[in-house]
Amino acid sequence: MSKGARNTRQFLGVSSSGAGVSGNSSASYRSGGIGAAARTNDVNTGILDENVLALVFRSLNFDPKALCTVCCVSRRLRAVAERVLWRELCISRAPRMVASLTATGAGAGGAPPAPGRVVGGWPALAKLLLFCCGAAATAVRGHFTGVSRFSKTSGRSFLSRRCRGDLLYVSDPCEHAVPGADDDMGAYRGVFRGFMRSRTRACLVGRQAPLETRVRCPYCGARVWSMVAAGMAPRSACRRLGAYEGRLEYYVCVSGHLHDSCWLARLTSSDGDHDGDSEDDDDDASTEGGSDGGPVAP
Fold first, then answer.
1. Which of 218, 257, 264, 283 is in the most buried spot, having the most CB atoms within 10 Å?
2. Nearest 10 degrees: Cα torsion 196, 262, 219, 278
3. How is the chain split into domains, by residue range?
4. Separation of alpha carbons 87 and 283, rounded Å
5. CA angle 90, 91, 96 (to 5 degrees)
6. HSE (side-chain half, CA atoms, 13 Å) at 81
7. Three-state SS for 89?
8. Whole-model pTM?
9. Residue 194 and residue 130: Cα distance in Å, rounded?
10. CA-based nearest residue to 284, from 148, 130, 162, 82
11. Most confident of the following: 2-11, 239-248, 274-283
12. How far is CA 34 from the centre of its chain?
């Protein structure tokens, strides 16, 4: 047996000795079972090894479109991606934001804590970081973003006074020109930390706010609350976004993802940002996404 053949079999996790190896490998390949051939004692090896895949995608800068393609290859690759690769993508694009969203205390010896779990899953967070959901009401399609800026300062503007203790990241609005309209449409998105234990959720449940029947979260598919209908949309959100007052609507899903759009007011030379609340701008997260294109999402 040639050295190349032995290396190939070792890469696929198949023993090179014993009868019937070639037949089993061929049958596994024909059945789409690269996972069956690459599995030894239920441990992923070869191309399904988590460390190998992480190194490959790190060299690709965790390109989201390539990662979406890999998820379509097989169930085992999709499972590895959901467990490891989407998490690594989020950490590589927004390390401070992810650390803040998953903080559970310092590690051993004062080391930084390892990333914990996020409600809704890592694929949903990755999509939220890199994908603008557009605006269905004005037929603005979703798309990958170039660079998105998420800020806790912006997030505080979306919280009512009773909920100011919550941590919420909100992006700057992604501006879209709408045919026949004088103003631009701004689409924005955000995410809560620990939404299940947040004051915002407690207020929504306490007010018995109904879940919307016709709207779903574009990032995790969960049901959503209308913050305007619940009476929990502060005016400061309009000022922060530069939107017309009374023309803002946004939704929060049961996993803690925020999204929607607004009509952006045209700025004059005398307009400016007077919030004066930017002491934590160093914690803002700028995420470099994939190239702009069609509505492809993780």
1. 257
2. -60
3. 3-13+23-93, 122-269+282-288
4. 19
5. 110
6. 23
7. helix
8. 0.72
9. 21
10. 148
11. 239-248
12. 29
